[in-house]
Specification:
alpha/beta, 4-stranded antiparallel beta sheet, Rossmann fold
């Protein structure tokens, strides 16, 4: 079966500094694929490369290929705007727009255009349910998004991405700084969402990766040390460095 996302011999540079060294990995469709590793291992750069957010960084340069549905995302006929709708990203610090809860979720569909008020209402409710936020906000959709708690803001940002109906969702430590209850709600949402979306996650910690991942890749200082199923990585890693990291001996 063709993987949803395939990274082939990717090297990445910021100026003359190489931060990712010839990595290759396949992300199956409808799974949660976690990228784990200590700070400075190139995980955020890998995520940002998948929807070409790295294009916005001066001096950034990539070699190799990233394919989605076997199509190179850097082919000349690829629309970057369309790519970023297909491959949405949720960042570690939630940044709601300075508008209502409803308008935050409706913002993307409105930009695309051609949607009725009824369709917007349905999208807002559906995505807020999928992000486990609907019960918290259904009676105050007109309230300012900035009035939400940190965990609620992060779930709102997830809903905002979902409103564009992505095929792939990238999450860069979406639970950093959140309390355990908010973290559990987001993890439950991800487990449900993978039924229709492929998820690539930079988890908050190793324990989160173990709880939610189907497959895991361990990156260390820009090198891919190994990848495999959840059980492979956490119960029988092939490399001692992986074992040391997942058992907390370093990182």
């Amino acid at each position: 079966m063709t993987p949803k996302v395939s990274i082939k011999n990717m090297r990445f540079f910021y100026g003359d500094r190489e931060v990712i060294h010839d990595i290759s990995m396949d992300v199956p469709e409808h799974e949660i694929f976690s990228l784990i590793g200590p700070a400075g291992s190139g995980i955020t750069t890998t995520l940002r490369a998948i929807n070409r957010l790295c294009d916005l960084t001066p001096g950034a340069r990539m070699e190799g290929e990233i394919l989605i549905d076997d199509k190179n995302i850097r082919d000349s006929d690829i629309s970057v705007t369309r790519l970023r709708r297909r491959v949405g990203m949720v960042f570690d610090v939630p940044t709601p727009l300075r508008m209502s809860i409803y308008d935050n979720v409706a913002y993307g569909p409105r930009l695309i255009g051609g949607v009725s008020k009824k369709s917007l209402d349905e999208t807002v409710e559906k995505t807020l349910r999928e992000s486990a936020l609907w019960d918290d906000v259904k009676d105050r959709l007109s309230a300012a998004a900035l009035s939400l708690s940190g965990g609620q803001r992060q779930r709102l940002c997830i809903a905002r991405v979902l409103a564009l109906d992505p095929e792939v969702m990238l999450l860069d430590r979406p639970c950093s700084g959140l309390d355990p209850i908010s973290t559990a709600k987001i993890e439950d949402s991800l487990t449900t969402l993978k039924e229709r979306i492929t998820i690539i996650l930079a988890p908050h910690n190793v324990q989160q990766a173990r709880r939610v991942s189907d497959k895991v890749a361990f990156l260390l200082m820009g090198d891919l040390i190994e990848s495999g199923t959840n059980l492979d990585i956490f119960l029988s890693p092939a490399d001692q460095r992986t074992s040391d990291y997942v058992t907390g001996r370093f990182g």
